[in-house]
Design goal:
CATH topology of one domain: Rossmann fold
Low-confidence stretches: none
CATH architecture of one domain: 3-Layer(aba) Sandwich
Bound molecules: alpha-D-glucopyranose
CATH superfamily of one domain: Glycoside hydrolase family 3 C-terminal domain
Radius of gyration: 26 Å
Strand content: 15-25%
Shape: globular
Strand order of the largest sheet: 12-17-16-15-13-14
Mean pLDDT: 96
Helix content: 25-40%
Distance between the termini: 73 Å
Oligomer: single chain
CATH class of one domain: Alpha Beta
């Protein structure tokens, strides 16, 4: 008669009972090892094969990635964990699948310009299916930091400057990654990062101090994390940043008071890479042991890569500095995640059609939709869509024939060879008889081989120039801060030299951030922010330039004229003086392109803004409507943005705050009523410096489509 399985092995029991049973069987060392995370790929110094001492079968989680054979590395590691450890507790395997695995979508900042959370959800679902097929159980995404400084390379990973929009995309991403049921073939655990305030990095530098007022923390930085948790996100990652003097990875107020007591997160919080040991560099801990104690007692559950929990927690428990109950609670969160992922029943990942597979046409269609909808037409004097009269086209610039930069940062699994370049996509689509000549003119960052004159020569012999400039993938993302948004290398020289030919220029920008265009913007006939649009960026761009697609992207960040204007964002607080007092003396204080700016190939007319009442009680409801008509000649997608302005409050309010957005596709001549049903407690309140929601009586101004109307909140 075989022994009945222990309760933790029984799938008929509730997860909490299984967790309790397993926890009761574990030694302190086994518990602490569950709180250790290290690398398990063949490009990581913690690699199991290279450093057997780095591996213990009782470790709780591993980061895979870098190596192409992720599934093999993952299952080999899991086999050792399950067979060599006393209790056979499976490990959970994580990776950075930020905007796709091998089938890459546009960067998150670009995806935010689609203003289509459902489309973004679908992109994350595709990424989850691909990641799962490599044996990845947990992705370190979505990144939902708030940033208004494009010198910071990681702005590329954010969903832009509006907390309302970032919250919508955070929730959509979580639903896309986690799907209906964690542990399914197409779902991975999401991880909201980098909690919290990392995007306010001083000077746009990385890993530095972030001075954020408590009220701004609640108003600008916390909402997308709360939205992600409300959408069911299972995990959170703490940031590198020193948050107002108490680093985010050891901040009791944010990690325990807010995440646990206010928001009820039940899953684990993992540190960022070495952010526990970095507490010593930041001057928050005297040594490694103190760093481990401070991070853990603040509420950080898993130590990524530094090893300080593994090396010091047992001693802290023995000395009474850390309680066993606290260790148990952290381990409980890790075990709960593993049970929810089904890892005890299915510890090994199985290959399927998506494993190490090139993206297929079905995936291409979604990637192209995401890339096309994220693209923002910033300027157009009518040169776009390209007319049939353009018989000789010069395709110039370092991004014209190089496909790798289109993948952007965090694209380590992407395959440039599977990614069409802009030149290839245009050649495929241009009508017969149209001459396309391609000349790089210069590199992205400058090289001895740069030859702008060659590009200028091709421009002279053309009817029209498409000039592709910007950044390569590593120029945005982590540890990619820049002192200027200006084009790198000799690109600006190339732009000016080509502009001097007098030929009409369509400027295509491939980047992870807004770029400084002030010196030549006026000389361009059209400007397209194509961002790093992913595997199918070139196809989407070519279809847009040729008029097969009508661009509908709208900026999710303010686009400054120059770096010197930073920070410049739509939801700034008003200044004390009017007119030009307080404005810059050397340049307009307005941005080059406003938040939510974007052009298309059709036009939309807005009817009169209508309110169903002019007063509303706190628990009442006010319905605002506007009728939008496609007044142009082709179908188009219009996004209607509803802003509020609270002109007088106990805490100063932004010049305007996005509170609702809605999108629809309209045929030429078609109209649609867009509605914003305002619920004051949800839409008109604001947080105080401890996150309490404040709703005050008084005037509110509603702004939509260039119109405004006032109403009052009454007691
Ligand atoms: C990095 C990044 C973080 C990433 C983690 C694991 O330093 O800050 O976004 O998820 O380490 O690679």
């Amino acid at each position: 008669m075989s022994e009945p399985p222990p309760p933790f092995r029984r799938t008929d029991l509730p997860v909490e009972l299984r967790v309790d049973d397993l926890l009761g069987r574990m030694t302190l060392e086994e518990k602490i090892d569950q709180l250790h995370q290290c690398g398990a790929s063949d490009t990581n110094p913690n690699n199991l094969a290279l450093r057997p001492d780095a591996f213990r079968p009782t470790y709780g989680s591993f980061i895979v990635g870098g190596s192409p054979a992720v599934l093999e590395v993952r299952n080999a590691c899991q086999r050792r964990v399950v067979t060599e450890s006393r209790l056979g507790i499976p490990a959970v395997f994580a990776a950075d699948v930020i905007h796709g695995y091998r089938a890459l979508a546009p960067l998150p900042l670009a995806q935010a310009c689609t203003w289509d959370p459902e489309l973004v959800r679908r992109g994350c679902a595709l990424a989850a299916a691909e990641a799962r097929a490599q044996g990845i159980d947990w992705t370190f995404a979505p990144m939902v930091d708030h940033c208004v400084d494009a010198r910071w390379g990681r702005i590329a990973e954010t969903f832009g400057e509006s907390p309302h929009a970032a919250s919508a995309f955070s929730a959509a991403s979580v639903r896309g990654f986690q799907g209906e049921q964690l542990g399914g073939r197409d779902s991975v655990a999401a991880c909201l990062k980098h909690y919290v305030g990392y995007g306010a990095s001083e000077g746009g530098r990385d890993y530095v101090y972030t001075g954020i007022s408590p009220q701004s923390l609640w108003e600008m930085h916390l909402p997308p994390f709360e939205a992600g948790i409300r959408a069911g996100a299972r995990t959170v990652m703490s940031g590198f940043n020193d948050l107002n003097g108490v680093p985010a990875s050891a901040n009791q107020y944010t990690l325990t008071e807010i995440l646990r007591r206010r928001w009820g997160l039940t899953g684990p919080v993992v540190s960022d890479w070495d952010s526990v040991v970095q507490l010593v560099n930041q001057g928050f801990a005297a040594d490694d042991a103190e760093a481990a104690e401070k991070a853990f007692t603040a509420g950080l559950d898993i130590d990524m890569s530094s090893g300080l929990y593994r090396d010091h927690l047992a001693a802290h428990v023995a000395a009474g500095r850390v309680t066993l109950a606290a260790v148990d609670e952290a381990v409980r969160r890790v075990l709960r995640l593993k049970f929810e992922l089904g890892l005890f029943e299915r510890p090994y990942a199985e290959a399927n059609a998506l494993t190490d597979a090139a993206p297929d046409p079905g995936q291409f269609a979604l990637l192209e939709e995401l890339a096309a909808r994220s693209l923002v037409l910033l300027k157009n004097d009518g040169v776009l869509p390209l007319a049939a009269s353009a018989r000789r086209i010069a395709l110039l610039g370092p991004l014209a024939a190089d496909s790798a930069p289109l993948l952007g940062c965090w694209a380590q699994y992407g395959q440039p060879a599977e990614t069409q370049s802009i030149a290839q996509a245009l050649k495929e689509r241009l009508p017969a008889g149209v001459q396309l000549r391609v000349e790089q003119g210069c590199s992205i960052q400058g090289a001895a081989s740069d030859n702008p004159a060659a590009a200028v020569e091709v421009a002279r012999e053309s009817d029209l120039v498409i000039l592709c400039v910007g950044e390569d993938g590593p120029m945005s993302g982590e540890n990619a801060s820049r002192t200027t948004l200006r084009l790198a290398g000799r690109q600006e020289e190339l732009v000016q030299a080509v502009a001097a030919t007098g030929k009409p220029i369509v400027l295509v920008l491939v980047s992870g951030r807004p770029l400084e265009l002030a010196a030549f913007e006026g000389k361009m006939s059209a400007i397209v922010a194509a961002w790093a649009g992913g595997t199918r960026a070139a196809a989407a761009l070519a279809d847009t330039l040729l008029g097969r697609r009508n661009p509908s992207g709208r900026l999710a960040v303010t686009w400054p004229r120059t770096t010197g204007q930073i920070p410049l964002y739509h939801n700034m607080r008003p200044r004390g003086r009017g007119g030009d007092q307080g404005a810059y003396r050397d340049m307009p204080t307005t941005p080059l392109y406003e938040f939510a700016h974007g052009l298309g190939y059709t036009t939309f007319g807005y009817g009169a803004l209508r309110l169903d009442r002019t007063e509303v009680k706190p628990d009442g409801r006010l319905v605002a409507e506007v009728t939008v008509t496609n007044t142009g000649a082709c179908e188009g997608v219009e996004t209607v943005f509803w802003f509020i302005r609270d002109p007088a409050a106990s805490i100063t309010r932004p010049l305007k705050e996005l509170k609702h957005f809605e999108q629809a596709s309209l045929a030429p001549g078609a109209s649609r009523v867009f509605r914003f049903a305002i619920e004051p407690r949800r839409d008109l309140s604001f947080p105080d410096d401890d996150g309490r929601s404040v709703l005050e009586p008084g005037e509110i101004i509603l702004l939509v489509g260039g119109q405004s109307a006032s109403f009052r909140v009454t007691r």
